[in-house]
Design brief:
Chain A: It is an enzyme of class 1 (oxidoreductase). The structure holds two protein chains of two kinds. By secondary structure, chain A is an alpha/beta fold. Helix content of chain A is 33%, strand content 19%. Chain A has twelve helices and 14 strands. Chain A has a seven-stranded mixed sheet, sandwiched between helices. Chain A has a five-stranded mixed sheet with strand order 9-11-10-13-14, with helices on both faces. Chain A is globular and about 65 Å long. By secondary structure, chain B is of the alpha/beta class. Chain B has a five-stranded parallel sheet with strand order 1-2-3-7-6, sandwiched between helices. In chain B, strands 4-5 form a two-stranded antiparallel sheet. In chain B, helix 11 links the parallel strand 6 and strand 7. The longest helix of chain B is centred in the first third of the chain and has 26 residues. Classes of the chains: A alpha/beta, B alpha/beta. The interface between A and B is large, with 47 and 43 residues.
Chain lengths: 347, 378
């Protein structure tokens, strides 16, 4: 087994994908000789030539728009948006064309392309380099939106994204680029549209993805020391959503907590909470809680620690999962659900 | 390693301020000074252009009538712009691609797309009715200028696969203000992509006149800043549009890079059937442009040179009439609706959540079907 970082595993995935399929092309800003600002495309131009990996003009809408055209002609473009917040100029292309082309053309034109976006904070970067933009994409039907949390998933999910007949927004948790694992590459993990249980536990379910999976696992270790067993579910795919795995876990544990870096308001955690409530209502012992970024523009790096979900914030939220008021349907009145006072609304 | 001390590239010549033309307003061969070195296409080509314009105008009138009858959800007319759409479409070779907007129905039927499939979008049956790959016509694009970069990527990919496919992008004057137009022009020039951008400058972006859109001497001048060739053409002269687009495509195909053509024309009809142009423009202006009719101009030339007789004219008219009749007949019945299709093409395979929604909608549709029966379906 060899030591691999997430960044190197993604690089290897691109290399192997390009070897496997001559139609795979990689381009974007600074992805050529520089190898990308995070070096994810390092060496690809030298190995496959400038026809297969090249620098484009600095214009994200043009990058994605040309990728649409290339995919229409049977190529498999993998384009890089340099940072989350720099991808916004391409939003029109992503929403109106990438996501809809198959649908608009009744399946006659499919767009097998991948848009790689480093996202999230935690690297001490200045503004516009730390956004968690996943909800914008996950809200758009026709896109697959996936995000790996482990080195093995980084490799496997990127290979699968390139092979997918559907367009994929591939969100790379940038602060995990340097996280490492010992493993052999190539590796194939679970299908990219399935969530996986990273750590089993009977008392509560912590639902996380991308950069917060590791935080959730650290919190689960602390909880174990307190005698509470948290099950950690790594969503991996935000869209489509793996209801089956998530609901099965919450039905076992009866409590659920969603953790993400993005602002809570209108965020992806709201969708998770709604789905869990719809599918697990009679199994829930407490409301589904969220640990999210604050409802503020991404803060300057000296303050980002207050914005990002931490182990402590997860532990605090776990404490609020109404452990004192467990109830069992049909049991004696004393153990029953407390009577909620009626709220009178004055005119 | 690349160097920054490469010799400067020779700038393409500035487009002329007067649009180049091969036929004047009265239907005579234009003076040499107006032709800028371009030759009138051969007689067969001129007759083909006129025939397609006659058919296109009849189709346009038919579609407008269907919109008034409520049989189309909306119809943006091509009337007055036939020379641009036909001249552009007929310049394409079989392997080339056309990237049209919603106003380019006449270009699409000139390219051979089934007229009923062209109207699928505007009838509200589905978003794109034709098979883009079969006709090598991209879906009609509504968010302006956003399909221009698709043409750049497509031709770039085609060239890498050994094909000499070129592309023609149709856009309007308003669309040149969009950032996506800028990005597409720049990508095309930097990549030396075989793309011709044909701007149908019809003076109006719904209600906004050109002078509020651009301060450029002509829209064709924009080409220069990107390092591509720019042409300023009379857009009501089908011969000129065809000649210039043909040359630009040939040059692009042989490695000469992209070109930007501004064709000066006019939107004679309202933006769509739901627009009210009396709020923003004078009838006198519209009348002036109606008199500069592109069909009359080409017909006058062909007749004066003895290349068009009444029999041929009647043949064009009869082809146009039978197309209109076929469109009427085929659109007379209520559209077939499939709720399953709502879910069929979102992903390659419907997701579990979409399968659940599909079942729900199927049930609702069946209930509605029963409800519309005399006994309520019971």
């Amino acid at each position: 087994m060899a030591h691999h970082t997430l960044g190197r595993a993604l690089n290897r995935a691109l290399r192997d994908a390009m070897s496997a399929d001559p139609d795979v092309v990689v381009y974007g800003e600074d992805v050529g000789p520089l190898g990308g600002v995070f070096r994810v495309t390092d060496g690809l131009g030298a190995e496959f030539g400038e026809d297969r990996c090249f620098d484009s003009p600095l214009a994200e809408s043009g990058i994605v728009g040309t990728a649409v055209g290339m995919a229409m002609y049977g190529r498999r473009p993998v384009v890089e948006m340099q940072f989350d917040a720099f991808a916004y100029p391409a939003f029109q292309q992503v929403v109106s064309h990438v996501a809809k082309m198959r649908n608009r053309t009744r399946g006659r034109v499919e767009l097998p392309l991948v848009i790689r976006i480093p996202y999230g904070g935690g690297i001490g970067a200045v503004e516009h380099h730390g956004d968690s933009s996943e909800a914008y994409y996950a809200h758009t039907p026709g896109l697959r939106v996936v995000t790996p949390a482990t080195v093995a998933d980084g490799y496997s999910m990127l290979r699968e994204a390139v092979e997918s007949p559907d367009p994929v927004v591939f969100l790379e948790p940038k602060r995990r680029y340097w996280a490492s694992e010992d493993l052999d590459l190539p590796v194939r993990t679970a299908p990219m549209d399935r969530a996986v249980v990273r750590r089993p536990g009977a008392d509560l379910t912590v639902i996380a993805y991308g950069p917060t999976v590791d935080t959730a696992l650290l919190a689960a270790e602390s909880l174990a020391e307190e005698g509470r067993e948290a099950e950690v579910v790594d969503l991996r795919s935000l869209s489509p959503f793996d209801d089956e795995t998530v609901a099965a876990s919450v039905r076992r544990t009866g409590r659920a907590l969603v953790v993400h870096e993005a602002h809570g308001f209108g965020g992806f955690g709201g969708e998770v909470a709604a789905r869990v409530s719809e599918q697990c209502f009679h199994y829930l012992e407490a409301p589904v809680l969220r640990v999210c970024g604050l409802d503020i523009p991404y803060p300057p790096p000296h303050l980002e620690e207050f914005h990002l979900p931490t182990v402590d914030r997860i532990l605090d939220a776990v404490d609020r999962l109404q452990w004192e008021s467990s109830w069992v349907p049909g049991a004696d009145a004393g153990a029953g659900r407390p009577q909620a006072p009626r709220t009178e609304v004055s005119a | 390693m690349t160097t920054s001390d490469a010799p400067p590239v020779a700038a393409p010549p500035l487009p002329s301020l007067e649009p180049l033309r091969l036929i004047d307003d009265e239907g005579r061969r234009a003076a040499d000074s107006a032709r800028a070195g371009f030759e009138l296409p051969d007689t067969d080509t001129l007759r083909a252009l006129l025939g397609a314009m006659v058919v296109g105008r009849r189709f346009d009138a038919q579609a407008g009538a269907l919109a008034k009858q409520g049989r189309l959800a909306v119809y943006p007319s091509s009337r007055g712009q036939e020379a641009c759409q036909v001249g552009g479409a007929l310049a394409l070779a079989g392997q080339d691609w056309l990237f049209p907007t919603y106003r380019d129905s006449v270009a699409l039927i000139s390219r051979g797309v089934d007229p009923v499939e062209v109207l699928t979008l505007l009838r509200g049956d589905w978003h794109c009715g034709y098979d883009p790959k079969a006709y090598r016509c991209a879906p009609q694009c509504t968010p302006l200028a956003t399909n221009a970069s698709h043409a750049v990527g497509l031709t770039y990919a085609a060239r890498r696969k050994g094909s000499d496919t070129a592309a023609l992008v149709l856009m309007g004057d308003g669309a040149t203000s969009e950032g996506d137009a800028h990005e597409a022009y720049n990508f095309a020039a930097v990549w030396n992509a075989p793309v011709v951008f044909l701007i149908q400058n019809n003076e109006w972006a719904i209600s906004v006149p050109l002078h509020k859109q651009s301060a450029a001497p002509t829209l064709a001048h924009k080409a220069i800043g990107y390092g591509m060739r720019g042409y300023h053409v009379d857009g009501n002269d089908a011969a000129a549009v065809h000649a210039v687009v043909s040359r630009a495509l040939a040059e692009a195909r042989s490695g000469g890079g992209p070109a930007l053509i501004e064709a000066r024309t006019y939107r004679v009809e309202p933006h769509t059937n739901s627009d009210d142009p009396t709020r923003y423009r004078d009838d006198a202006e519209v009348e002036r442009w109606r008199r500069r009719d592109p069909l009359a101009r080409l017909e006058a030339l062909l007749r004066s040179e003895g290349d068009l007789d009444d029999a041929r004219s009647a043949e064009f008219a009869s082809r146009a009439e039978s197309l209109a009749e076929s469109v009427r007949t085929r659109l007379a019945h209520e559209p077939h609706r499939s709720t399953d299709e709502l879910f069929a093409h979102v992903y390659a395979e419907p997701t579990p959540a979409l399968r659940r929604q599909r079942a729900g909608v199927r049930e609702a549709a069946a209930r509605a079907e029963r409800g519309s029966e005399p006994n309520g379906g019971r």
